[in-house]
Amino acid sequence: MLPEIGQFTLILACVLSFLQMVYPLYGVQTGHQGAIRSARILTILQFIAVAFSFAILAYSFLINDFTIGYIATNSNSAMPWYFRLSAVWGAHEGSLLLWVFLLSGWSIAVALMSKRLPIESVARVLAVLGLLSFGFYLFVILTSNPFERTLPYFPIDGRDLNPLLQDFGLVIHPPMLYMGYVGFSVAFAFAIAALLEGRLDSAWAKWSRPWTMAAWVFLTVGIALGSWWAYYELGWGGWWFWDPVENASFMPWLAGTALIHSLAVSEKRGVFKSWTVLLALSAFSLSLLGTFLVRSGVLVSVHAFASDPTRGLFILGFLVLVIGGSLLLYAIQASKVKSRGRYELASRESMLLINNILLIAALIVVLLGTLLPLVHKEIGLGSISIGEPFFNRMFTILIVPFSLFLGVGSLFRWKRQQLNDLKKPLSLILILSVLSTIAFLFVFAPFLTWLAVLGTFLGFWIIVAVVYEIYLRSTHRHAFSKGVMKLGNSHWAMSLGHLGLAVIIIGITMTQNFSIEKDIKLAVGDHITFEHYDFHFDQVKPLNGPNYTGTVGIFTVKQDQKQIAVMKAEKRLYTVQRMPMTEAAIDAGITRDLYIAMGEQLPDGAWAVRIYYKPFIRWIWLGPLIMAFGGILMMCDRRYRSKKENADQDPMTTDKEGTENA
Amino acid sequence: MLNKRRVLTLLVPFIIFIIGAVLLATPLLKGSDPSKLDSALVGQTVPAFTLQDIYDENKQYDASIFKGQKMLLNVWATWCPTCYAEHTYLNKLAKQGLYIVGMNYKDNRKKAIRWLNDLNDPYQISLFDQNGMLGMDLGVYGAPETFLIDSKGIIQYRHVGDLNEKVWNDKLLAIYEGME
Amino acid sequence: MNPRRKKRLLITSSLIAGLSLAIGLTLYALQQNIDLFYTPNEILNGKNETGEKPEIGQRLRIGGMVLNGSVQRNPESLKVSFDLIDNKAGQVTVYFDGILPDLFREGQGIVAQGVLKSENSIEAFEVLAKHDEEYMPPEVAEALKGMEHLKTESELAK
What we know:
The structure holds three protein chains of three kinds. Chain A contains 20 helices and ten strands. By secondary structure, chain A is α+β, with helices and mostly antiparallel strands. Among the domains of chain A are: about 1-165, Four Helix Bundle (Hemerythrin (Met), subunit A) (Up-down Bundle), CATH 1.20.120; about 420-515 and about 620-655, no CATH class; about 515-615. In chain A, β9 (about 590-600) and β10 (about 605-615) form a beta hairpin. In chain A, α8 (about 200-235) runs antiparallel to α9 (about 245-270), α9 packs antiparallel against α13 (about 350-380) and α10 runs antiparallel to α12 (about 310-335). The two termini of chain A are about 50 Å apart. Residues about 300-305 and about 640-660 of chain A have low confidence and may be disordered. Chain B is α/β, with parallel strands linked by helices. Chain B folds into two domains: about 1-30; about 35-180, Glutaredoxin, CATH 3.40.30.10. In chain B, a hairpin with a 6-residue loop joins β1 (about 50-55) and β2 (about 60). Chain B starts with a helix and ends with a helix. By secondary structure, chain C is of the alpha+beta class. Chain C has two domains: about 1-35; about 35-150, CATH 2.40.50.140. Classes of the chains: A alpha+beta, B alpha/beta, C alpha+beta. Chains in contact: A-B, A-C, B-C. β1 (about 385) of chain A pairs antiparallel with β1 of chain C.
């Protein structure tokens, strides 16, 4: 009975989202106040309905209701409860339900937290969100119903969740990522509403900013989690593979990053407006594209869509409608927008323009690398794959100007910067960052490569520039200790965002240049030594988990004769799906990870073992966390909360905030 | 007019998008041709193989078992919930006198035997395809699947998904009746 | 030219310059990093689409099924070799030094990335069996028609 109720509330939510789309728009057109106000109520009702539906699916997973086909194929009674819960979004149907659930979560957030906005604008924004929800509800209900029953004959037990997904990282990674994807729908809806209204002003940019930032924070954390998960779960020790699924999440991130920067310019200076709108449309469109690529199976496997091409076609149709429609609207409406601000070539505006150009170039690189194999095949030239070296080389090239401009960019003034004034600070930053690079490499690098020097330098260039800029701002009118307290949240947000990038750059540089990876044959009792570490293969023990069996290899690690860790690398066999899995043993540290993964057992009883030494790899995930923290700080800025807006700001703080660009 | 030119410039993203959409739609529309999936072996004989009997490791079969009479080849596994659902109907068909060969696919022998003992065994012959070799040759991409094979050993039809009264009466029965 | 126009021109031209630089670099990098995908048969007889045969020393990807009984290991190290076949007549030997993926088994479809060593052998630097990558290019599936099996293995929700 419960699943039928879930199905019913899902359909109810679909109907409500349709009303949420139509009724407020009608109200705005005719000036009918009741219809305009209904937007909020309908959004709330829609959220309640879909939340109910989602809760029922989750509950059915928890109680092992295998009469539901989706649960029977993706769960098993032997799985612990938390994996049964995360199995809700373990495959296609459930993750789409999660998607619509989150979308309505963002909608209700907009409905409840935008009391200051003119009610007509809210109605328009919610109507656009209603349209998006409606499309996805139709998709779920028509092609991917998670509540479909297997009655009258249902299995005694389920087929188990894919073992790769039975992991803590996968419990939180997809919801985070989806929060990011879906969150860009709010920026999208704001942009469309503004286009419909024909009013693209600073107020629009100001409203969009915190929402865009929130989505960006989620996406950042989501991507970092995915990378971390791939690192420890796939057993290869890699942290980014440039595979289409990863690229699909990276593209909206690049567009989103460009967007939060260009929104800042639009808000402060009233320029770049039509460009900002285009970015807002793109960020969400790329999220949709990512969903399409992953869900339609166009890139994944020929069979995934041969079995059900309707899904792919449905999303594509929806994509054409939403993206095509919005771009058409953009072409017509944005042409009426006039930028009012003026700026010189040497100015903060130009710096941010360069930032945007480089980010978009990176985006094009990823898009090209992801879609080109498809095109190549379509035009009859045969199948190709584009190797990691392509992406790596392109990003190595792009990151150089990006970091250099990023370092100096925040020193530029709006409108006009006398380049002569920058000579002194720039030479100071250059000297300090060169010195830090030398010191850092002297301590941590076993040898030197050009790329290592370059990467470390770029990282420190940013760090020194950010710190120097904070110093300059703080001492602008006060003593440092007093001035530093006066810096606004937004300013800290920008600094943290940039520091996060520097941390990532240093992490990647160190990991890529100084990792030691050994695939070797080891028998119990053998040992291997490198980088002052001695790995001793102690023993192999059998392993018994709830839904898997296997073996565990135990290693003692000594550094200069002192035992520093006992590492247990597991080899699991998931019994239901008969799928082997490698669970790597990781000894994590701030300056290095040790990583052991068991390969196969060789005919003579010895084991193939991967032993890795990965310096600074944690920094790759630490960086995004710092960035995300910065984003959260910015959302907490009082400008986005206080009712009185600018009225109560003294000239001092206005000046401070005028300088941030995060 | 300046404005017109502006509109044209701003139309560029839209045009790029439409080209992209057409590009993405092509493989999808091509891939949606269902005959492509099914035609691989229809009209051909079952590929050569040697497989053990599910109950008896020492007993082996080859492709000659598919000749001599028309029959159903059913691919199943204990890990497949839909197979559980269709099993009752297979028993019913077997009672009506249909000759059904079962192929246990990528499975565990013990579990499979227990399943057959518990749920009744509708199969005249039960092949055990542990590593999916024959399944591979047949182009099976999941379970359950059912093949209709005529008396010359030629595959006449391939059904993907569960077999039930409706599917049998609406589709398969006519083909089965028409086979020699 | 008034200053506003001048500025516009500067911005537009820098935009175009940046874009074309990006495109140029991209195409250059692409040219060196496109790995064509071959089936064993295509290695021996040329690609189906173009009839082109790979040259010795070329980087490529190959997808096929590991021939039963062809896996040979060096007892001293992790060096291993095996033969790949497809649904046509091709048979190509792959040499690899490293750890084979969990799902590597005889009779299993795999993809290897490496360099063509002789007319019918490949020195691989990466061997992938299905679940190590969520991404299985459609062409592999096509070449191995029938080697793709359980839906769950391809329906990774990432």
